[in-house]
Design a protein that fits this description.
CATH class of the largest domain: Alpha Beta
Strand order of the largest sheet: 2-1-5-4-3
Distance between the termini: 71 Å
CATH superfamily of the largest domain: Histidine kinase-like ATPase, C-terminal domain
Number of helices: 16
Number of strands: 17
Structural class: alpha+beta
CATH topology of the largest domain: Heat Shock Protein 90
Radius of gyration: 67 Å
Number of domains: 5
Bound molecules: adenosine-5'-diphosphate
Shape: rod-shaped
Largest sheet: 5 strands, antiparallel
């Protein structure tokens, strides 16, 4: 059990003690008050009663003695009367002379009376001699008991002749009082015990409920809102349990809703093409998505908690981040990064705000490298096309002007000029055809009409078209493709591929050179090659040879009627078929262009 729960238990245990003590105090305080108050009141009332009764007796005795004129008679007679009256009222009667000498005593034998102590200094006797009623409680050391003394004067008309004193042992009063006291004490102890038992039962019952609350709140604190408090009571505790259960159900539902939302957001975050970085206000990594991990070749586990520059050494980005964190504004910028690879990123950095202050920064990085590259390619393409069109057009315009200005009449030159104009027009025609082919291939609008194609036969057909050029250069042509070698492809497009490759192999060949067409069948693909023993291609130009308008020697290519688009068209057609193209070449020795087609 958690220490928190333990402490609460201890506190509750002390709560139990408090409850029991409160109950005890509730009983002890009034009982003590009652005990002492009642005790004193009872004692006072009992004594007052006894005193009154004893006084009446004393007066009665005095009256009787007076009526019998007992003082006038013999001492022995007086003593007898006193003993008789004493026996009747069950208390000691003493008759004392004015000088304090005892004349008679109901409890002492007659012969011992003369030896009795003089009573003149007894307070009650002194009061009676002063014509008052004397009353005194005194401890009798002989009887070891508290005694109540009442003395009244025995008067004849005006003068006091003697004092009659009655004495009563108070042990009975004391007994009654102690019994009352004991009863109260016993009730108090019984009440106290009952209160303790009741308080402890109540506390245990209360604690059982409270323990359930503590257990439940501990569960809630740990995030388990599935737990419920089961209290079978309709009192305030029952209502509290119901409220807490409702609250837990509500929170549980909210959490489930947030979790679903979180999962959706995480899925978006994970699958986003754009890279997302979340930084705290110290520019330390909080989170990154897989796109960023790929972009910067980093790992979230590694990056988390580290500062931006520690993980991504890019000062431009760091500057953007610090600007956002400092100024609390959105910053958008296109940045070139060199690490881990050259890339162009469009960065959008947004401050994350909480309670009016910046608590972090969210960066969305969009990789625009390809877009920028394509833009450059398109720009270059437009420039190239314009240039390619401009050269023959300028030439045509020049010769047309020359003809108009008089050369038209010079038959021999006019024919020559017209031939040149025709050549340029053919070039323009070729160029436009190639451009149309290329744009058709690139736009994805060209469909492949696939059929079984016999490559040996196709190569022969194309070669026959180049008969004049081959003869002119006295080339040795070898078609090594096995006659039965066939693959499913677009026949017309494959013919264009052969035409472009053979055209180059003838154009860039030496006189009496070789032109070899071969093919090889692999497990999954077919490789066809067109080799020549021509001028070859410098190593530095090899990687770019299949690009549009890329030519090793522009002037020479143009002179030979090339457009610089032939190889680009070959590449597109082969890629449309799912194959690849390549070249091996040694300057001055020859080239071997090849392409593969999946079988
Ligand atoms: P072109 O119309 O100029 O031939 P291509 O795209 O067919 O355009 O070829 C591009 C360039 O590649 C040529 O200008 C040439 O410089 C080089 N090239 C192509 N084929 C060969 C080859 N067989 N031998 C040497 N260079 C070649």
């Amino acid at each position: 059990m958690a220490t928190g729960l333990k402490n609460s238990m201890q506190r509750l245990r002390s709560f139990k003690v408090k409850l029991v003590l409160s109950f005890a105090a509730l009983l002890v305080i009034p009982f003590t008050f009652i005990y002492f108050n009642l005790d004193r009141k009872l004692e006072d009332a009992a004594l007052a009663d006894i005193k009154a009764s004893l006084l009446k007796h004393a007066m009665l005795v005095a009256d009787t003695l007076w009526a019998n004129d007992a003082l006038a008679g013999s001492r022995a007679g007086l003593d007898r009367t006193v003993k008789e009256l004493g026996a009747r009222i069950s208390c000691r009667i003493t008759v004392i002379a004015r000088d304090g000498a005892v004349l008679a005593d109901s409890e002492k034998p007659f012969d011992q009376i003369p030896s009795m102590e003089n009573h003149s200094n007894r307070p009650e006797v002194m009061a009676a001699l002063n014509d008052m009623t004397g009353a005194e409680i005194r401890y009798s050391s002989t009887l070891r008991i508290d005694m109540l003394y009442i003395a009244v004067p025995l008067k004849d008309s005006d003068s006091i002749r003697a004092v009659v004193r009655l004495a009563l042992a108070l042990d009975r009063v004391r007994y009654i009082l102690s019994t009352t006291r004991n009863t109260i004490l016993a009730s108090l102890i019984f009440g106290l015990a009952l209160a303790l038992v009741l308080a402890s039962v109540l506390a245990r019952h209360f604690m059982r409920s409270v323990n359930r609350f503590i257990y439940a709140s501990d569960k809630f604190a740990k995030g388990d809102f599935h737990h419920r408090i089961y209290l079978d009571s309709s009192d305030e505790l029952g209502r509290l349990a119901q409220t807490l259960n409702d609250m837990a159900a509500h929170i549980e539902e909210k959490i489930r809703f947030i979790e679903v939302q979180n999962q959706q957001l995480r899925a978006i975050f994970q699958s986003m093409v754009e890279g997302v970085i979340v930084l705290d206000k110290e520019a330390a990594f909080v989170s990154v998505n897989p796109a960023i991990e790929r972009m910067f070749a980093i790992d979230l586990a590694y990056a988390q908690g580290k500062t931006f520059l520690e993980v991504i050494p890019n000062n431009d980005m760091a500057e953007v981040i610090s600007q956002v964190l400092k100024t609390n504004v959105v910053v958008s910028r296109e940045l070139a990064i060199v690490w881990p690879v050259h890339k162009t990123l469009q960065i959008n950095a947004v401050p994350i705000e909480s309670a009016g202050s910046v608590t972090g920064c969210l960066i969305v990085a969009h990789d625009v490298t390809e877009m920028r590259k394509l833009e450059t390619v398109r720009r270059d393409f437009v420039a190239n096309v314009s240039h390619e069109l401009k050269t023959p057009l300028t030439s045509i315009k020049g010769f047309v002007e020359t003809l108009r200005e008089g050369a038209f009449d010079d038959k021999e030159h006019a024919q020559q000029f017209l031939k040149i104009i025709e050549e340029h027009t053919d070039r323009l025609n070729n160029l436009i055809n190639d451009l149309l082919d290329l744009s058709c291939l690139e736009s994805g609008e060209s469909f492949l009409a696939k059929e079984p194609v016999h490559f040996s036969e196709l190569a022969d057909k194309v070669l026959s078209g180049f008969g004049v050029a081959i003869k002119k250069k006295s080339l040795m042509v070898k078609n090594k493709i096995p006659a039965d070698l066939a693959a499913v492809a677009d026949r017309a497009k494959m013919e264009q591929v052969f035409t472009n490759l053979i055209d180059n192999a003838v154009k860039f060949n030496k006189d009496k050179g070789e032109l070899v067409i071969a093919a090889q069948k692999g497990d999954r693909s077919l490789t066809v090659s067109v080799g020549d023993s021509g001028i070859g291609i410098p190593v530095r130009d090899l990687p770019r040879i299949f690009e549009r308008f890329y030519r090793v020697d522009k002037a020479r290519s143009r002179e030979l009627g090339g457009t610089g688009l032939g190889l680009s068209i070959v590449k597109h057609i082969i890629e449309l078929h799912g194959g690849t193209v390549g070249v091996e070449s040694t300057e001055g020795i020859g080239s071997r262009f090849w392409f593969t087609l999946p079988l």
